[in-house]
Amino acid sequence: MYNTFKIKLLLLTGLLVMGIVINACKKEEDPDTDAIQLFSFGPSPVLRGGDLKFIGTNLDKVTAVVLSNNVQVTTFKSKAADQLVIVVPEETVNGAVVLKTPQGDITTKTILTISEPIAITSFSPAKLRPGEVLTINGTYLNLIKEVIFSNKKSVLDSAFVSKTQTKLEVKVPADAQTGLVVLSNGLADPILVESATALEVTLPAVSKLTPNPVKAGQALTIEGTDLDLTKEIIFGGGVRVSSFVSVEPGKLVANVPANAKDGAIKLVAASLVEVESTEALGLVVPTIASVSPNPAKNGTDITVTGTDLDLVTKATFGGGKDGALKGGTATEITITVPIDATDGSITFSTAAGKTVSSASALAMVKPAISGIAPLDVQFTKQITISGTDLDLVTRVKFTGGTEALAGVVSATEVTATVPVGTQSGAITLVTTNGSEIASSQAINILASTSATVTSMPNMAKPGQMIDIVGENLDEVTELIFPGDVSATMFGQKSATLIQVVIPMNVQTGVGKIKMITVNGETIETPEINIQGVDPVADPTLVFFNFDDLGLWWGDTGGPENDPSYSLDGTNYYRVNKDCNGWTGFFWRNGQNNFPGPTIGTNVANYVLKFDVNVLEPITGGEFAWRLKGSSGDFWYRWKPWEASGSYKTDGWITISVPVTEFNDGTKAISDLSTITEDFGVAFNSGASHVNACIDNVRFELK
Questions:
Q1: d(CA 65, CA 92)
Q2: What is the C-alpha to C-alpha distance for residues 644 and 268, in angstroms, rounded to an integer?
Q3: Hey, which of 10, 373, 522, 534 has its CA 20 to 30 A from 29?
């Protein structure tokens, strides 16, 4: 059964193959021998000027070949029945090809593409000045739409000097730099062809600087080559000059800026390439011949002689104090001695950063004491000191560690009130520059016959009872607090003690209490700092309240709302930690709810206020308040414990700081709208346990 099926299958397969062969043979036996047929063509892509071959039958009957762009070829390189060869004309572009025949047009089914091998074979000259013509030789340069120089400076074909298939001429842009030259055919996906070597673009060069050293403000002559290509000069210190006295290829003359500094100069071309001189330029330094008078009196004028003194922009006296320049000439200037200058040489500075010092130290005039009256005196009574140059006196120090501000002051006389607690002995005059002059005479302190205060608190708050201790206090009939507010609530009253409650409507801050005696005499107590919490005047100027205006980050502490500490039932910030070095409390940035733009440059009329309750004594470090922005990094360092060794408020008080006291080390803050970065406060520069609450950080009109 199986063999019979196999035999039948083989017979059937044989018959099928035989049929195919017979058909094939029959087809070959009956061809259309006159038909013009195209089987293939190539190569594609093909070079312009190269051979393009067509393979087919009866191609010798083709009368013309029409290429894209309607380019017609009727002259054949060779023509045979099976192959036709033409040379591709230069104007040919990509597209279909049509063979013209007596039997009709034959159009290729595929597109003929043209190979365009853009190439740079050379360019000249190898070095050019901006504006000069560069000649580029190569192939298919007629296709170039853009020449790109180093520094991405391009010249479009509309600005070419000339363009052919083998040569381009183009002017070097003024701001081109040395580097490779790149050609582009300008298509969306462009062909970019780089030169094999770099084109050197000429730069200015310096060979000599005259004069050297040069005086600021005078003309400097620069000699060299191609100096007319200079667009800017950079002097030492980065000072730039773009306006010149005269410019020639071999010589450039420019005035030296007042604030130019020593060092090489740089010439800047239009391409922004900088060329540095090998020779360093020096700036003239003033010379000092004499300073008179010497000794000089603080606050008076001195005369300085020398050379090039018109360069002087600052005169720094002993103690680092700057005097006021009052003008003059190159050989003589007048300067006012600072009121707080001390003995020492004067350092003269120029805008160029040059300094020169006087050869000898300038001594400061000191007051002289000729007499004191009366020598026998009671507390709170006035003494008069006679002598010379006493108008320099600011304070009088007494034996026993007390001191008083100078009262009536003139060149020959100064008065002072003897403080309570002064002991018998010499007095010392303290001048504007801190000099001290001791008297040869001694005053004798007499027993007091009127009310005097020997001790009292130096800080308290409204509503608090304080003890005033002294002598003859039973003579006092009335106490008047700052703000002209009379006391109405008392505790004990005796010859040595008055207990009084500070009125709630007292004027807060540093002030004195007036004591009115039975004889109508007014006696002032030592200063007392009466502190309390100021109401928030403008809620829109608050930038930390720890409710809706909280912190973004900090190292310790956070918002709390303990009724026993809260000012008004709302949140406050609390820190309770041993701090050592930088410890951030609360911070935000980016002008987030910061009212600086509202105030802007009106900083002189505003203060920074914050409410604080120091629960335990702070003994070191500082609260570093920071306002940082585009104009600087400004700080105010609050550390009231620095003088006394510790600080505790015993309740909430308001601290007020003039905004102008924020500085960045060189200048005070002048525009709050520039604070665009960090703002907040941290503990820094020391160590202490800090247990304190802070609330309502704000700006407020003075």
A1: 12
A2: 60
A3: 10
Residue (of 652, 663, 546, 650) closest to 603 by Cα position: 663
The chain-wide mean pLDDT, for the chain, equals 90
CA–CA dist 377, 660 (Å, integer): 43
Using a 10 angstrom Cβ sphere, with 0-12 exposed, 13-18 middle and 19 or more buried, the burial of residue 206 is: buried
Residue 12 banded pLDDT, cuts 50, 70, 90: very low
Report pLDDT for 389: 95
Q: Within 13 A of 568's CA, how many CA atoms are on the CB side?
A: 11
DSSP structure string for 7-44: HHHHHHHHHHHHHHHHHHHHHHHS--TT--EEEEEE-S
**Model confidence over 305-343: pLDDT tens digits?**
999 999 999 999 999 999 999 999 999 999 999 999 999
* Max avg pLDDT among 255-259, 417-421, 451-455, 688-692: 688-692
Instruction: Give the integer Cα–Cα distance in Å for 170 and 575.
Output: 73
**Which band of pLDDT confidence, cut at 50, 70 and 90, is reported for residue 18?**
very low
Q: CB within 8 A of 484, min separation 6: which ones?
A: none
Give the single-character DSSP code of 668: B
Give the C-alpha distances (Å, rounded to integers) separating 408 from 270, 300, 340, 348, 366: 68, 20, 20, 36, 18
Q: How confident is the model at residue 47 (pLDDT cuts 50, 70, 90)?
A: confident
> Parallel, antiparallel, or unpaired for β 382-388 and 413-417?
antiparallel
Q: Find the helix or strand (DSSP H, E) in which 275 lies.
A: strand 274-281
Give the tokens for residue 610: 């914050």
Q: How far is CA 654 from its chain centroid?
A: 33
Global pTM reads: 0.53
Between the two ends of the chain, the Cα-to-Cα distance in Å is 123
Question: What CA–CA distance (Å, rounded) separates 626 from 586?
Answer: 11
- Which residues face 266 on adjacent strands? 234, 276
Token pair, residue 556, equals 């310790």
Reading the block at residue 453, the tokens are 């205060």
Question: Which pLDDT tens digit goes with each residue over 584-601?
Answer: 999 999 999 999 999 999
Nearest to 621, CA basis, from 691, 555, 688? 688
**pLDDT (0 to 100) of residue 26:** 35
The pLDDT tens digits for 171-202 are 999 999 999 999 998 888 788 899 999 999 99
Dig out the tokens for 111 from the structure.
């597109």
- CA 680 – CA 587 distance, rounded (Å): 4
The four Cα atoms 298, 303, 309, 310 give a dihedral, to 10 degrees, of 80
Distance CA 407, CA 83 (A): 125
pLDDT digits (tens, 9 = 90+) for 56-79: 999 999 999 999 889 999 999 999
Write the single-letter amino acid at 451.
Answer: A
Query: How many C-beta atoms lie closer than 10 Å to residue 424's C-beta?
Result: 15
Residue 88 to residue 86: CA distance in whole angstroms:
6
Counts of helices then strands in the chain (DSSP H, E) = 3, 65
Check: CB of residue 417 under 8 Å from CB of residue 382. Answer: yes
- 175 in Cβ contact with 167 (< 8 Å): no
The rounded distance, in Å, linking the Cα atoms of 323 and 635 is 27
Give the pLDDT confidence score for residue 31 in this predicted structure.
Answer: 54
Give me the phi and psi of 533, to 5 degrees please. -95, 125
Any bridge partners for residue 579, and if so which?
688
